[in-house]
Specification:
The chain is of the alpha/beta class and about 250 residues long. It has a single domain (about 1-175, about 195-249), classed as 2-enoyl-CoA Hydratase, Chain A, domain 1, CATH 3.90.226.10. The protein has 10 helices and 9 strands. The strands form 2 sheets. A 6-stranded mixed sheet has the order 1-2-3-4-6-9, sandwiched between helices. Strands 5-7-8 form a 3-stranded mixed sheet. Strand 2 (about 15-20), helix 1 and strand 3 form a beta-alpha-beta unit. Helix 4 crosses helix 9. The longest helix has 19 residues, at about 205-225.
Length: about 250
């Protein structure tokens, strides 16, 4: 692997770590290497569970949308689908912020352990954009339809504590979430590996097909908004750290 992604396996747990601090913005290169790393673990008998984590202040602040076009979106989402297709259980350790596509990346995991002061947001509407990375499926699957609609329509931030209360994460912890993520991954790794993968396949049997369909719809919806004035305003406001002024065109 390159310096973008590292993998280490110990005591049945594979630690897959992103290295683009402090915010760990993703692009096609990082996601391709991340998907390669996760899928390579399918054939590694020493790895029974995966902890997905990142170096730096934030888990993942999403994608850099400047200069993004329709082809780039679809290329990125092909790698997102590859991530969903891995066979080993994943526990995401989320510190700092998980924003937009970064939240989508966290939702690929079976479980999320989040710092209590972390901030999670599906901020797409605040950018004049459509949600992506499969959140159309994974967000309501975790929090329910009504919570998902509110989070998507408003784009508001959710603390780690609130995330635990609404089902967006499985645990909110005061200290480094990686410690608790490793503990959970260790308990998974202690179970019979063939049974775990069979259970996971059953429990997620519809997910891959639904995500594949959603990614296609999301990519089309995002592409249609790329040239709008509202998207340009949303990006400018985000970069300028000010409130956007949307006009509906």
């Amino acid at each position: 692997m390159t310096q973008l992604i590292t993998t280490a396996v110990d005591a049945g747990i594979a630690i897959v770590e992103m290295h683009r601090p402090p915010a760990n913005f993703f692009d096609l290169e990082l996601l391709t290497e991340l998907a390669d790393a996760v899928l390579a673990l399918d054939s590694n008998v020493d790895a029974r569970s995966i902890v997905l984590c990142s170096e730096g202040r934030h888990f993942c602040a999403g994608a850099d949308l400047r200069g993004m076009d329709a082809d780039a979106i679809r290329s990125v989402y092909r790698q997102a689908l590859r991530l969903f297709s891995g066979r080993k259980p994943i526990v995401a350790a989320v510190q700092g912020r998980a924003v937009g596509g970064g939240l989508g990346l966290a939702m690929v995991a079976d479980f999320r352990v989040v710092a209590i002061d972390a901030k999670l947001t599906a901020n797409f509407a605040r950018l004049g954009f459509h949600q992506g990375f499969g959140l159309t499926v994974t967000l309501p699957r975790a929090v329910g339809e009504q919570h998902a609609l509110e989070l998507l329509y408003t784009g508001r931030e959710v603390s780690g504590a609130e995330a635990a209360s609404i089902g967006l994460c499985d645990r909110a912890v005061d200290d480094d979430p990686r410690t608790a993520a490793l503990e959970l991954a260790g308990r998974i790794a202690a179970s019979a590996p063939l049974a775990v993968t069979a259970i996971r396949r059953t429990m997620r049997r519809e997910l891959l097909g639904r995500v594949a369909e959603a990614l296609d719809i999301e990519a089309s919806a995002q592409a249609s908004l790329l040239e709008t004035a509202d998207f340009a305003e949303g990006l400018a406001a985000s970069i300028g750290k000010r409130e956007p002024l949307f006009r509906g065109h």
